[in-house]
Structure formats: C-alpha cells, structure tokens
C-alpha cells in the first residue's frame, strides 16, 4: 500500500514537473485586440522622423494594437538616427510590420535596417532595399581594427534579427561591408527568403497578415488578426511635420540661398525691414534643417563663401566675375553638402541646384546689363548733359556770344571763330559755365 502511494505521488510530481517544463519552454500567447496603427513615411528619415515613429510605437503599445504597420516610401535616411530606432523596433511589445511601398520605392540602407528589425517584413512589386555602397561606413579617423569591430557588430545585429524571424542572412555580410541592392524578386528568391511577404498594396498586405504569429521580444507570441480591425493612421503633429519638412536637404538648401538674397536685398534697398525679417526667418529654418543632417563642414564653408561672393557682386559690380565664381562654388557645395557615408541615398536634388544657379545667374546678368547700359548712357542732367546738344545762336558769336539750349541762355565761344544769329551750333564742351560750340556742317 505504501509503495503504491509512493508511486502515485512520484507520478504526480513528475506530471507537475513536466507541465512546468512545458510552460517554461512554450512562449505565452499575447492578447492583441486593439486597432491596427499605420505610419506613412516619405522623404528623408532624420532625428525628427524617428521621434515621430517612436511616438507612434508608444501609442500602439499603449493601445495594445493588433499591429503597427510602417509604410516605408523613403529612400534616404541618416544612419545615426535610423540605427537606434531599428533597435527600438526590434524590442517592440506589439507586432511591427515594415512594408516597402508603393511600387518603385528604393528604400536604400534605411530599408535594410528597418526590414531586418521588423517582426514581419513586406515589399511591394518593383521595390528594393540596400545600397551600392557599404551599408555602414565609419569615420576614417578611427583605426582599422576599430572599424572592423564596428562592422562586425552591425553584421551580428542584422544576422540576429533576421535569423530570429526566420529570414535569410546570406546577404547581410556583403551588404554591410561592400554594398548590395536586393529587389523584391531577389529577396523572396533566397532560401529562406529575406522578406516575409510580397503585397501590391496595404489592403492585400492586411489579408496576408491575418492569422500569422510572431514572437515578440518579451517572450510572448502574438497572432495577428488584421481583417475587420479599425485602421488608425498616426499623423505627425504640426511641429513634427515642420521639422521633418525643414530637414529635407533640397528645401533646406533653397531656404538658405533665398534667405540670404532677401537679406542682401534689404541692404541694397532699405525699407520696412520686411525683406530682412523674411530672410532671417528663412535662414533660421534652413539651419534647423541642416543641423538635423550630416553636412560636410568643408562644403558648408564653401556655400557661405559662395553666398558672400554673390552678395559682393550686387554691391560692387565687376561685370559678373564674382557672381560666376560664387555660382560655381555654390554648385560644388550643393553636390557635396550631405555626407554620403552617414546618409546614403540622401542628397540635394540636382535639378534644384542647377535651377537655383540658373535663376541667380539670370538675376546677376540682368543687374550687370542694366549697370553697363547706365554707364554707357550719355549724361542728361547738369552741365555735362549739354554736351552734344544742338543750340541756337541768339547773339552772334565772334567768337563769343550767347546761345539758347535746353530752355536757357548760355555764354558761348565758337571754335570756328564766328556764327551768325539764328544759326545752329553743337555743344562740344563746357568750361566754367561757358559752352564751347561748333558750327554744324551741312
């Protein structure tokens, strides 16, 4: 009897231990019943953008959202801002889906980082991620050993994220060290695929996501229920939207140029200070945007020199020489202003650089042409303005007498010696309020 009781207790304890082991090895099921939150990204991803994304992620987590879907339509991004946010994305307590869309989007290095960090990754047809340049490049001042260690850490991080999600890792080493671009077709052709889903649009994506399970960083598994859920778009606040707009390289560049020109215009034609005030506002907005971007110091200095030369041309005209030098420096600066190592895929639009240069060149040419015409135009006021005019002899010249010109009588001396009353003579010079005239030969 005692032996049978002992065996029963032993069996019971074994069952309890087995159940505990199963509970410990099986992740808990997360109950996600909230709406689906979506964020749509366009333009350059900077610190202002990642702050907006963090707010969207916190909102989704607070609401126990079914999922947070990031529609990635951006190509360029500042890596110093994107990398930390990718880490936050990987640790999210709600399922995060990164969807490279719409069709034609080249998401660049930003896409490679965010797709890797996301719990589920998706791409629209005719899209890509990655860069022909190394995904990570560091300051050349760092030792070679340090750079290798940093590259290894990036490779390990991307491998960890992708292997945890069951995605391919074979592309990572080449992308980080040498550069690699993967289209959506190439990404799904890998075994296992580098992305989870291919969807034409958000509607198809929601259909494909329904019923999928993802492992979250807090050791729970969430099953997505995306059909029939409310879709909540998280919009940027006015301040977030303004900061993101100002951090667009093309806009910041244009604001700085035109702001400086407005200030120059105020100095050239002082008035109500409207031009100066507007120019200062534009310059401040440009600086806010440029400080959010990794600008190259030498290119920024070159831009300031270019603006100084353009301003000097308006005040001390040398027939456009200073302006030509300034425009060349401005173009060179615009092409190199953003550091490609820190913000791959981010640059000032070439059409904007050339368009602004052409506009400024036309303005300088117009001002120079007007100045030349004014200098060549004969003087029409004062005594010098009488030179070349036709006068009528009112008192015979022998050789001195009086002539009538420009509504007044003048003492005159005739170079030809004599001129009768009523004859017409031409003024050739003015000397001590006396006109020097010559007969008009017929």
What does this structure look like?
With 442 residues, the protein is α/β, with parallel strands linked by helices. It has three domains: 27-238, 2-enoyl-CoA Hydratase, Chain A, domain 1; 248-254 and 287-376, no CATH class; 383-439, Nucleic acid-binding proteins (OB fold (Dihydrolipoamide Acetyltransferase, E2P), Beta Barrel), CATH 2.40.50. Helix content is 48%, strand content 17%. Helix 2 (47-62) packs parallel to helix 3 and helix 3 (79-90) packs parallel to helix 4 (108-117).
Q: What secondary-structure arrangement, pairings included, does this model have?
A:
Layout: H1 2-25, E1 28-30, E2 36-41, H2 47-62, E3 67-72, H3 79-90, E4 96-100, H4 108-117, E5 120-123, E6 128-131, H5 144-164, H6 172-177, E7 180-183, H7 184-189, E8 197-198, H8 202-209, E9 213-215, E10 220-223, E11 231-233, H9 238-246, H10 249-268, H11 274-291, H12 297-315, H13 321-336, H14 350-376, E12 390-395, E13 400-405, E14 408-414, E15 424-431, E16 434-439
Parallel strand pairs: 1-10, 2-3, 2-11, 3-4, 4-5, 5-8, 14-16
Antiparallel strand pairs: 6-7, 9-10, 12-13, 12-15, 13-14, 15-16
Helix pairs in contact: 2-3, 2-9, 3-4, 9-11, 10-11, 10-12, 12-13, 13-14
Taking all Cα atoms into account, the compactness measure Rg is 38 Å
Number of domains: 3
Strand order of the largest sheet: 8-5-4-3-2-11
The CATH class designation of the largest domain is: Alpha Beta
Give the helix level as a range of percent: 40-55%
Order of helices and strands: HEEHEHEHEEHHEHEHEEEHHHHHHEEEEE
Number of strands: 16
Terminal residue distance: 155 Å
Oligomeric state of this protein: single chain
Model regions low in confidence, pLDDT < 50 over at least 5 residues: 1-5, 16-29
Strand content: 15-25%
The CATH homologous superfamily of the largest domain is termed 2-enoyl-CoA Hydratase, Chain A, domain 1
């Amino acid at each position: 009897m005692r032996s049978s009781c002992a065996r029963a207790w032993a069996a019971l304890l074994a069952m309890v231990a087995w159940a505990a082991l199963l509970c410990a090895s099986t992740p808990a099921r997360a109950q996600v019943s909230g709406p689906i939150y979506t964020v749509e990204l366009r333009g350059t991803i900077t610190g202002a953008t990642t702050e907006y994304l963090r707010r969207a992620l916190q909102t989704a987590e607070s609401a126990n959202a079914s999922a947070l879907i990031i529609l990635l339509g951006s190509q360029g991004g500042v890596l110093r801002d994107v990398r930390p946010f990718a880490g936050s994305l990987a640790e999210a307590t709600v399922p995060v889906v990164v969807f490279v869309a719409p069709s034609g989007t080249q998401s660049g290095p930003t896409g490679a980082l965010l797709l890797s960090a996301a719990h589920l990754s998706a791409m629209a047809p005719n899209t890509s991620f990655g860069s022909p340049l190394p995904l990570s490049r560091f300051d050349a001042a760092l030792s070679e050993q340090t750079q290798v260690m940093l590259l290894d850490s990036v490779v390990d991080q991307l491998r960890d994220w992708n292997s945890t999600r069951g995605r391919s890792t074979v592309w990572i080493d080449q992308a980080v060290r040498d550069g690699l671009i993967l289209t959506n077709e190439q990404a799904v052709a890998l075994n296992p695929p580098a992305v989870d889903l291919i969807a034409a649009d958000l509607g198809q994506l929601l259909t494909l996501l329904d019923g999928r399970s993802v492992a979250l960083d807090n050791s729970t598994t969430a099953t997505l229920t995306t059909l029939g859920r409310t879709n909540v778009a998280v919009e940027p606040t006015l301040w977030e939207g303004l900061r993101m707009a100002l951090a667009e390289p093309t806009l910041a560049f244009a604001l700085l140029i035109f702001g400086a020109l407005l200030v120059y215009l105020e100095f050239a034609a002082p008035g109500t200070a409207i031009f100066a005030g507007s120019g200062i506002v534009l310059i401040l907005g440009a600086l806010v945007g440029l400080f959010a971007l990794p600008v190259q110091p030498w290119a920024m200095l070159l831009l300031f020199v270019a603006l100084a030369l353009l301003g000097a041309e308006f005040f001390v005209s040398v027939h456009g020489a200073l302006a030509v030098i300034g425009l060349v420096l401005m173009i060179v600066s615009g092409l190199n202003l953003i550091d490609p190592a820190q913000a791959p895929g981010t640059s000032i639009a070439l059409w904007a650089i050339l368009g602004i240069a052409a506009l400024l060149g036309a303005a300088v040419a117009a001002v120079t042409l007007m100045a030349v015409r004014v200098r060549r135009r004969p003087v029409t006021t004062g005594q010098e303005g009488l030179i070349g005019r036709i006068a009528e002899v009112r008192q015979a010249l022998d050789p001195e007498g009086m002539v009538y010109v420009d509504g007044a009588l003048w003492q005159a001396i005739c170079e030809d010696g004599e001129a009768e009353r009523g004859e017409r003579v031409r003024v050739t010079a003015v000397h001590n309020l006396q006109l020097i005239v010559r007969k008009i030969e017929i």
